[in-house]
Amino acid sequence: MADARAAGALAARTSGTVRIVGAGLLGSSIGHALSRLGVDVALADASPAQLRLAVDYGAGRREADGDDPALIVVAVPPDVTADVIQRELAAYPNAVVTDTASVKLEPLTALRERGVDLAKYIGSHPLAGRERGGAISARADIFIGRPWVVCRDEETASADLAIVEGLALDLGATPVEMSPDEHDRAVALVSHVPQLVASLLAGRFTGAPDEFLGLAGQGVRDTTRIAASAPELWVQILGANAQPVVDVLDALAVDLASVADALRDPDAPGSRRAVADTIRRGNDGVGRLPGKHGQKRRFEQLVVMVDDTAGQLGRLFGELGELDVNVEDLRLEHSPGAQFGLAEISVVPSAVERAVRGLEARGWKIASTTND
Amino acid sequence: MADARAAGALAARTSGTVRIVGAGLLGSSIGHALSRLGVDVALADASPAQLRLAVDYGAGRREADGDDPALIVVAVPPDVTADVIQRELAAYPNAVVTDTASVKLEPLTALRERGVDLAKYIGSHPLAGRERGGAISARADIFIGRPWVVCRDEETASADLAIVEGLALDLGATPVEMSPDEHDRAVALVSHVPQLVASLLAGRFTGAPDEFLGLAGQGVRDTTRIAASAPELWVQILGANAQPVVDVLDALAVDLASVADALRDPDAPGSRRAVADTIRRGNDGVGRLPGKHGQKRRFEQLVVMVDDTAGQLGRLFGELGELDVNVEDLRLEHSPGAQFGLAEISVVPSAVERAVRGLEARGWKIASTTND
């Protein structure tokens, strides 16, 4: 479907080869998506093993002498991004060069300091990824519906901008124009600091007794899920975006000290208020995050008890289909030791009553219905 | 099924009425579960409206003159827990009194200071809950597979302990004996501080531009999900467990300052190492949290593309049932604007190959398979 929707737009604009340097998760995923669209994808990677994997898995062909790419995508680790961009601009002076690095100001500054002509360079950053990296984890669909930041400047030719934004569109992403500085402050806030906070919180568990951790529930599991991220990449990302990250960390430290001080003397005047304000500000802040379907659309949930046997979910979703109820989202809660789980199903508000009545008539136990 | 598993154990031990004071989420949920087991449940609540709801929804009957409960469960807000325990001990001297408050030392200390005879009181805390409270959100199954902390002491009679632990067992929970102090330090670490951290992080979003928040992905959504919690209850909980919470917050503040200092001078010797150690400690810590199915059991995931039309999930799960593949867990990723979603399905390792082959033979597109 994505294939049909996006077909050919980039191919039409570039009428040629797309060269991808770096066949890891992002590079290979872009390669898969472009290959499906019929674009000639030439892959390069410093690691012969990674390159072989990417080619074997269908992300594109190996680079070849005489390749004349219209677009080059640099998808290498942050610490070598500037070097590779510089090299590619020199080697293919007619190509538009973009990159996928998750920090935008540092490579640009490095390239400017070296006096590199950046007329054909347009930095970009697809906000897509997976918990696991490498060509082997690549997926053509990871960009669909995600923002793809594109950093134009005054020297950017609009035809070149169209090529990079076309790449984003062809892969199902939404191009978002931002300055490198805005981008870096935004990702510090919504990605880099959340990673550090999850890591710091989970780090406090290392010295705790097993019995303490045994009381953990879904809340803390969600809060620390991304603490499982690999250190190597994050050291580079955080190092390359240090100042914006420090700015958010410092503000967070002030907030943390203030609520800790209130709790140091919980009966003092103003202490309850300070704690309540912290929780309330959190309510407001989390309410501003776009949901899976974007900020506006809201669903209602119904929770259905499901036996822990093969086929039960099939029957449930089959019957929802018969009721013409589309499942917008779902979470399966499954307790250790329990012989059944709870399927929390999100549906559009107009479908709630139809779903509940229909399912109950078919013998399902609805544990609850709630608003999002 | 849970009914069959646990049937009658408590009824046998108490051979009488269980009185539940406070018909909110926890009290009503206990009432529902006990009523299903055939136990006579007498409900009391300071709010006539809440009590009416709980009775109407089947959590038990109204309290009556002449009730002679063998067990009393106090399930009221933290700030009135000690008062209600004291009152219940006086009113029903033959009954064992327990409570469900999420802080254990403060009410105990208050009762001791008042010189209350606590021989028949055994504090407890079921680690169960939902994002929404009230009798209307009550569910008999929220205790299944969860820990239920029981705080015995030297004056606790073992017959009385058996009644409280029997309650936990009958509701499908696992009794865990801890001292009040241990309990409070444990929940500070795995529940109260994670709540504050999520709130503080989300609080930083209140002043940010919309475009910044537009770059948010699943990572930050998970990290801040519980920031949506209601302030009223949390102000009480945090106030009642202030010292253990402050201890963890102070340690966290030191860790945070240390990684911020490293990033202030990212090229200094030791800075990369300090950042890497933060991420690595987070890896270790999150690895110690028990998973949904307990720590040991591990699943593999396969990601299947699913059209965004009614009935598609039904077909998928129906066919997984035909293949005799049990779905252990699942997450539906659904991107804004996309016409399909990705169903990430967890299955036992031995079922992965059967699932992938079978689904592909039936025309499903498997986006990837990964290890947990």
From TrEMBL, chains A, B:
Coiled coil: none annotated. One of its GO terms (molecular function) is prephenate dehydrogenase (NAD+) activity. It is an enzyme of class 1 (oxidoreductase). Pfam families: PDH_C, PDH_N. Residues 16-293 form the Prephenate/arogenate dehydrogenase domain. Its EC number is 1.3.1.12. Keywords: Oxidoreductase. Belongs to the prephenate/arogenate dehydrogenase family. PANTHER family: PREPHENATE DEHYDROGENASE, PREPHENATE DEHYDROGENASE [NADP(+)]. This is Prephenate dehydrogenase.
